[in-house]
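Q: Hi! First time doing this. I have a protein sequence and I read that you can turn it into a structure. Is that right? Here it is:
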Amino acid sequence: MLALHFGAGNIGRGFIGQLLSASNYEVCFIDVNQSVIDDINSLKQYHIEIVGDVPERILIQNISALNSSDTEAITDNLLHADIITTALGPTALKFIAPVISAGLSKRISQDCPPINIIACENMQGASSILRELVCDHLSSKDLQQLSKYAGFPDAAVDRIVPLQKNSEKLLVQTERFFEWDVDETGIAGNKPPVNGITYVKNLQAYIERKLFAVNATHAAIAYLGYIQNINYINQAINNDNISSIVKCLLKEAGFLLNKKYDFSINEFNAYSQRILQRFSSKYIADDVTRVGRSPIRKLGVNDRLIAPAIQLADLGIISDGYSAAIAAAFCFDYKNDTEAVALQVHIKKNGLASALFHYSRINPQTELGKVILHKYNLLQK
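A: Yes, that's right. Below is the predicted 3D structure, encoded as structure tokens:
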């Protein structure tokens, strides 16, 4: 079986590539980094190190790589592929849509079996977005038949693979925990046999569990840690004040998810404990500035902090944990992040009340808005 995977970075090699390889796929990585491509093609293998009290070293073999510019070779491989996955960043999906559409057009013309294309990006509806981008490049005839030949099931993925510098080529260090949930209702044909995928019927529940709990907690630790000049996530979570806030946030997340999707409170509490254990691991030192990057996106109305805070407010509950995290996010002034710089320029020019509505669509005159403004002012002192 052949898997085409777009993105040969740490997530691609250290998460998706590992699971595909363990499921007996030949994995062809597609990337723009020629140095990584050359290393994959010359070494034909790499290692993953699972960090922890009981470390493990895993050898990944049966791999190859292509440069993203080699569209002819990619199209030929796509014709024979059994699954296509991505892990290259949400903004890069538009760049791979043309070559995927060309390959799908060939598959349609040759009446190939259906294939599933799963975008494993840190965003909601990534596969659906990729489908729209692919459709822009297909003929009207191919569009009419697309659903028969290709599925674009959305997915929720979770694994910490921090920035790292390793002397061993292609080595990736990662945590043991991972989660890869795929919407089985979006599958075309048979479900791809990948050990590690959990096929679910209500993916939105799992997306929001990750977004409102894992991603929100990660961001909260980063922004609160940054304010206190703490460099790493695992150090910040051990700060009593930060720990108290994120535990409050997780309690709020559990309440909301129970109301919306009937997630068991006891099961969610266990899930929350696992989140805190992961982020406090001494083996993964993740920079707060890396986790906090792109604050404007993370303060979006449908994203990890704002969406649950608004939904709780709609239920008559003004969050304490989420509000503190939101206030801290508006304080993120890291000068090497373009969004952080733009955010601070807006606040300096127009004030936080304006920024709160402009970026997060929260009316500063509402109870939620007032609480966030109050917490922000306390952080500024």
